[in-house]
Specification:
mainly alpha, 16 helices
Length: 317
């Protein structure tokens, strides 16, 4: 039992966060989480994650991560091609419009800013490559989201004009990802021998930070999840199947390209994971009348972290 807990502690942590946050009738846990969310808690955590990621990286990882172009291209194809096609196929199912729009929002999102990188490192993969994929995917998203989301909305007869604040995304990437990462790398180069002693502890700390982000997101969306009612079962199956297809595609691509241990993890985690904050922003601003779309976005984020949390233990072993 103790071995299982050590192996899957991250997965157990995610489950506990979901149960405790949703089941807390006093609103204490979710209330604190919403307070941190409103006061830029997730932003601060993302900055810390990439700062510590800079302290963890080494020069060999950076060189191999940038040079391994096959893995980078594979992950981007899953993000911008496989996911939208899967979303379009799900849109043909006889489900309510709100759920379809939620699936479409998830499908067009770039990869996560933090959890994918952390899980890649925890599973023994190349964090530098995961960082490259994160930056490229979120940069390209300012162009792809308006086009692909508009095409998907045609399946439900929508004509919503999708507008993305490109400069805001670029500034966020620079200030939340690149700047803290470069500061961490600078410190690592200057005090390499000292930092190498704390690599495992820093990786563990980053995983706790991811759990904190999930808690704040769950706190914000608790009411939407609770009010989902009978639709929750259907949504659970849909998002489980959606992410399962992306994981299967990533696994097939990794085998086809002969990406072994240390090279496949970034494709699997970065290709399949989807960022949550941007999907919530688009749902609130473009589709406020479809509350189920928000439930889909949040529940997908939780489910894909649970599924990937299990994979971290398997791939690491």
């Amino acid at each position: 039992m103790s071995d299982l807990i050590k192996k899957y502690w991250f997965l157990i942590g995610l489950l506990l966060i979901f149960v405790v946050t949703v089941a807390d009738t006093t609103e204490t846990v979710s209330g604190i989480g919403r307070w941190f969310k409103v006061h830029h808690g997730p932003d601060a955590v993302v900055v810390l994650i990439f700062f510590f990621s800079g302290l963890i990286l080494n020069v060999r990882q950076i060189k191999s991560g940038v040079m391994e172009y096959k893995g980078i291209v594979a992950a981007l194809l899953i993000i911008f091609l496989v996911a939208p096609i899967t979303g379009a196929l799900f849109g043909l199912l006889p489900i309510v419009t709100g759920v379809k729009i939620g699936i479409f929002l998830v499908a067009v999102m770039p990869t996560t800013l933090s959890s994918g990188v952390v899980m890649t490192g925890a599973a023994g993969g190349n964090m530098a490559q995961a960082l490259v994929i994160t930056i490229l995917a979120n940069g390209l998203a300012v162009i792809t989201i308006p086009v692909i989301l508009s095409l998907l909305l045609n399946l439900v007869g929508g004509s919503t004009v999708v507008v993305i604040d490109k400069m805001a995304i670029v500034i966020k990437l620079g200030s939340y990802v690149l700047l803290p990462l470069c500061i961490g790398l600078t410190i690592k180069v200057a005090a390499k021998s000292l930092m190498d002693r704390f690599v495992r502890r820093l990786q563990l700390l980053n995983q706790f930070f991811v759990l904190a982000i999930v808690w704040m997101a769950m706190s914000q969306a608790k009411d939407a999840i609770v009010s989902g009612g009978p639709s929750m079962g259907i949504i659970f199956l849909l998002v489980f199947g959606f992410h399962g297809i992306l994981l299967a595609a990533a696994g097939i691509v990794a085998v086809f390209l002969k990406l072994g241990k240390g090279r496949r993890e970034s494709v699997i985690f970065m290709g399949g994971q989807k960022t949550l904050p941007l999907s919530i922003i688009l749902q609130v601003s473009l589709f406020p009348q479809y509350g189920l779309a928000l439930v889909v976005c949040v529940l997908h984020h939780l489910i894909h972290l649970l599924m990937d949390g299990y994979l971290v233990g398997k791939l690491k072993a």
